[in-house]
Amino acid sequence: MKRGESAVAWVYAVLSAGFFAACGWAQVNDPDPERWVTFYVVCGSVTALVWAATAAEATGSTAAALGRLLSLASLVLSSMVTAVLANDVLLVLEKDEDGAVARLPPLLTATGLAQWFWHVLELEEGREVIGVLLLVIHNLLLVFTSQAAAASAGAPAQSQAKKSKAKRQLKKKPAWSWAQVLGILAMLALLGVAVYAWVEYQPLMNSRYNTPHCNGAFDHPFAHNNDANQH
């Protein structure tokens, strides 16, 4: 992996790790915070940092294998959780007799698809699906890029016994394709949109069903758990 690619990897790792750590922090007053906080931190933040630290390692190294294994395991786990939560959302939508949308945010038009999507966001389960789906895309990107970076890192060692011309060609070859670089940039943009939507519209998302532990997650952490313990 070249120096520029390594810098891009670390920028993405730090920003995405911070994003998923914030997702975990938002779960601290959830009825079962330990599971969700651990899930977001390990499958989101830890995988990003390990990926950046091991992406340039040679293909056969233990560090590279650990990084790819962690990303792959997180991808499988987050995909399974997404499927379970999506099924829960569909069950809730089937039981919800009032499918009308009370207040659409101004950025969404009053089309059927926008109304359906906003209704999903009004459900706690729907917001959970979106968060975990971001984890799926995140880990898919890590798996996709780590394979190319590791192959590039392992190439110079294999080329030492070859002709110098072939060795120079290997060195000039970038670890990532344009598709992989664009994937990282697109994921950063997606995380930015998610942050904006959460900051701007989260109170409105929860206003319809007014789920108690979804109010003031950042202002009063552990408040829900403290109330439960008192009772």
UniProtKB/TrEMBL annotation:
Protein source organism: Salpingoeca rosetta (strain ATCC 50818 / BSB-021)
Protein name: Uncharacterized protein
Top-level taxon: Eukaryota
Keywords of this entry: Membrane, Signal, Transmembrane, Transmembrane helix
Residue ranges of coiled coil: none
Pfam families the UniProt entry points to: TMEM220
Entry-linked PANTHER family: TRANSMEMBRANE PROTEIN 220
Transmembrane segments: 36-54, 66-86, 129-154, 175-199
Signal peptide segment: 1-26
Entry-linked InterPro entries: TMEM220
